[in-house]
Amino acid sequence: MYLDQRLREHTLLQAIARTNRTFPRKNFGLVVDYAGVGKELAEALVMFDKEDLEGIFGTEDVKKEQANLAHWHKETMKYFEKVNRSGSKPEDILQSCMEILEPEDVRAQFDMAFREFARSMDFLMPDPVVNPYVEDFKFLGAIREGVKNLYRDERLSLEDCSKKVEALIHAHITDTGIEEILEPINITAPDFKEKLEVKGSPRAKASHIEYAIRETVAEKIEEDPVFFGSLKEQLESLIAENKKERKDEAEYLKNLLEIKEQEKRREAYAKSLGLDDAKELAFYGLFNQLKEDLFHKSDKEQVAFTKEIIQIIKNKRVIDWIEKEDSKREMRSLIRRKLKAKGCPKDEIEPLIYGIMSLASNQLRDF
């Protein structure tokens, strides 16, 4: 609150007290006195009991917060005591710190300590008492931003910190030129190679690719459960193998890139089979999971049958068909008839129809 006129007695105290009303991302109130109401404030304080004034003025709170600041600074920095911050490249320092926070429980503990540290910084800034802690605070804020992006952990967002704290950290990230190091990468982005190159060592690149693949799989597995389910299995198998045997970092990175490339070639693979696009490939893949080969190892025959199933759905679609049970029942009946005629085992027909209809809800929603 900015005071630019004189207030007296209870009106003055009431105005000051109102600054401490809670609000999202606000932990306390500040009063900037342009009018010079020191005399009026002293007179007002005499008129009220100590109990009535409790919580309005924060002298003891400031002393307590100074102690909290030192405590939470120590608690957050202890995670990185073994990281050499001198003589190393910024990307290597950041990567080492982010790897320390890979386990979710460690990340959660660090986040709790950082939030308390940030709250104390917010309370005391711009008091010079915070000066010895500012550089470490900005360093920790950059790590937290990088960890949020790398592990796709939105719990570490700065949105619930004060605007003052958020601005300080983002200014530091911009001034030190580490935005690209901290940014998440997307395996389907056209600038993937450029984004990956700035991540530093093969180990760092591998870590970013691993979590980028995880994100893509999570986002797209409903579009094509067979293909993206396979990517997920390959990734988990590779990670487990690497933990067991500790592969060469360059080789591990190469293996991850090979998994990533499969997603890139998905559309081209669909066209090579004679399918129109990757959407049709999703239906095609469902038939690969059957115990029996209904198509006698003929891709051409499988493609033709896939298109027949898709055409049944397209022919029977009406406006808002996903919400209309009659339309879906007719689709299922026609698909069931086709599968029986093709010789699909009885115990696999209903699960396959469920998969086909689920895909249709995602891929063929539009009328």
Low-confidence stretches are none
Overall pLDDT level: 88
Number of helices: 18
Shape: elongated
Tell me the major beta sheet.
2 strands, parallel
Residue share in helix: 55-70%
Side by side, the strands of the main sheet go 1-2
Work out the strand percent. Answer: under 5%
Q: Element order, helices and strands? A: EHEHHHHHHHHHHHHHHHHH
Q: Give the distance, in angstroms, between the N- and C-terminal Cα atoms.
A: 57 Å
Rg over alpha carbons: 30 Å
Give the tally of β-strands: 2
Helical/strand content category? mainly alpha
Explain what this protein looks like in three dimensions.
By secondary structure, this protein is mostly helical. The chain is built from 18 helices and two strands. Helix 1 links the parallel strand 1 and strand 2. The model has no long low-confidence stretch (mean pLDDT 88).
Compact description:
The chain is mainly α. Helices cover 66% and strands 1% of the residues. The longest helix is centred in the N-terminal third of the chain and has 21 residues, at 104-124.
What order do the helices and strands come in, and which of them pair?
Blueprint: E1 2-3, H1 9-18, E2 32-33, H2 38-46, H3 50-53, H4 59-77, H5 90-100, H6 104-124, H7 134-150, H8 163-175, H9 179-182, H10 192-197, H11 202-220, H12 225-245, H13 249-264, H14 266-273, H15 278-287, H16 299-316, H17 325-342, H18 346-363
Parallel strand pairs: 1-2
Helix pairs in contact: 1-2, 4-6, 6-7, 7-8, 11-12, 11-13, 12-13, 15-16, 15-18, 16-17, 17-18
Q: Top keywords for this entry?
A:
367 residues, mainly alpha, 66% helix, elongated
